[in-house]
Amino acid sequence: MASSSSNYVTSNMNLPTGSSVSYDDLVLFVQELRGLGFDAIRFASYRTAAKLRYIQKKCSVDLLDIWNIIEAFRDNGLNTLDRFSIITVPKLEAIILSLYVNLNKRLPQGQLVDVSSSARYLLSWLLIAYDNEGSGRIRVFSVKVGLVTLCNGKLVDKLRYIFSQISDPNGTLIFTRFKEYLQEVLALPSMVLESPTFGYKEDLAEAIFNGTSKLFLGDFLDTLLSDPGPLCLIWMPLVHAIAGVEDVNHSVSCNVCRSPTIQGFRYKCQKCSNFNMCQNCFWQGKISENHRTEHEVKEYSTSKPGGVSLRNSFRKSFRCVPKSKKMPRFPDQPERPLNLAHIVPSNSNNRSTSSYSESLSESDEEHRLIARYTARLASESKYSTRTISQTSMSIFNSTQTQREMIAQLEARNRDIMREIARLRFVKIFILFLFINLHVGG
C-alpha cells in the first residue's frame, strides 16, 4: 500500500523519477514539503517562494553569499568552462562540499553547519532540478544558475552576475542565452512542484522584453527588478522578501489565529476596522468575524510605526500581483559592488546605466576635493577677505583664493618677524642700560 501511495505521489506531481536522486529520497522530499503545509498557500508566487526559502535554510545555502559562490566557481575552474560543458555528479558534490568546508572556517565554533548533511541535501535538490534523465551529468550553466539563485546575497548582484554569463563582449544581451537562463531558473519552481504556474514556455523571453532586440545591463535590470516584474519570475524577489522579514515582530495580534504577536509579514484589511492577520492566516485564506478573502489588504514588512509596506494594497489573485506605484527596485549601492569589468567590457555606444553604477571621474573628484578644502580654509581663517562658495566655485577662483590667503599669511608672518626683531632689539638695549647703570654706580 505504501508503495502504491509513493507511486501516486511521484507520477501525479510530475516528478523527475529518472533523476540521479534515489526514488526513496525523492518521495521523502515531496512528503516533507507536503507535511509542512506549503500547499495550503493560495498564491503560487508565495507558495513557491516559501518552499524555496525552506530548502535554503534546510541546507544552509542561505549562509553562502554570491561572493562565496563565485569564488568557488573560480577555484574549481568553472569560470573558464563553456556553459555547455558537462560536469559529473562527483565533481558537483566536491564543489558543494568545498563550499561548506570553507563556510565552517568563517563561522564561530558554536554555529558550524553539518557539512555532509547540508551538502547531500543541496546536491539532491540540484539533481532533481537539473538531472531529469538520471545521467549523472549536469551542465555548468545549470550549476551556476541554481547555486547563484539559491544562495544569499542581493538580487541585483545575482542578476548582474547572470547578465555577465548571457551577454556578449560588448555588454549586449544574447537573446538565445537569456532563453537558456529562463529554462534553467524556472527548473527551480518545477523541482518544488510549481511547474503548472511557473513552467517554461517558448514565448516567455519575447513577452518579457516586448520584442526589443538590443538590450544592455541597464535594460536587463530595469525589467527584472521592476515592480511587478515578469510574472514567470515573480517568485524570485519574494524569496528575498520572505528572508528579510523572518525576524520582524509586529506588536499586534492576529485577529484570526489570535497569536499575541505577528512575525514576518503583517496584513491589514483596508475595509475591516483595525483587522490584522499574520502571513500564515492570510496566505491560507482564513477568515474571521466580518472579514472576507475578497477584501483589499495591505502588506507590511516592518514593525516601525508608519513604515511603508513592501508592496502596496493588492486584491486576491492567483499570483498575488500588486497593481501599485513603483517602489525602489533595490537598496542603495551594494555593500560589495560586483566588478564586471573583466566580464562585460564597457562600450562607449551603450546606453547609460548610471542609475546602477554611477561614479565620478578622477579629475572631477580632485576638483571637488580642492573646492571643499579651500572653502573650509576660507571659513575658518580670520584673515580671509572673502567667502568661498562650495557649490559654485570654479577651479580658477579656488586657486586665486588660495594665493590671496597665502599672500596674506606671508605678509602677516613678515609683520610678526619684524615685531620679534624689534622686541629683541629693545631687550638688548634695556640690558645694555642696566649694565651701564650698575657699572657707573
Structural class call reads mainly alpha
From the alpha-carbon coordinates, what is the Rg to the nearest angstrom? 33 Å
Distance between the termini: 135 Å
Proportion in helices: 40-55%
Mean pLDDT: 79
Largest sheet: 3 strands, antiparallel
Strand share of the residues?
Answer: under 5%
Low-confidence parts:
1-18, 307-338, 340-363, 382-393
- Output the number of helix runs: 18
Overall form: elongated
- H/E order of the elements? HHHHEHHEHHHHHHHHEEEEHEHHH
Strand order of the largest sheet: 6-5-7
Described by its quaternary structure, the protein is: single chain
Strand segment count: 7
In brief:
With 441 residues, the chain is mainly alpha-helical. The protein has helices spanning 2-12, 23-35, 44-58, 66-75, 89-106, 115-130, 140-150, 155-165, 175-185, 187-191, 195-198, 204-209, 217-224, 235-245, 279-283, 354-357, 362-380, 395-440; strands at residues 86-88, 137-139, 249-250, 262-263, 266-269, 276-278, 297-300. Helix 3 (44-58) crosses helix 14 (235-245) and helix 17 packs parallel to helix 18 (395-440).
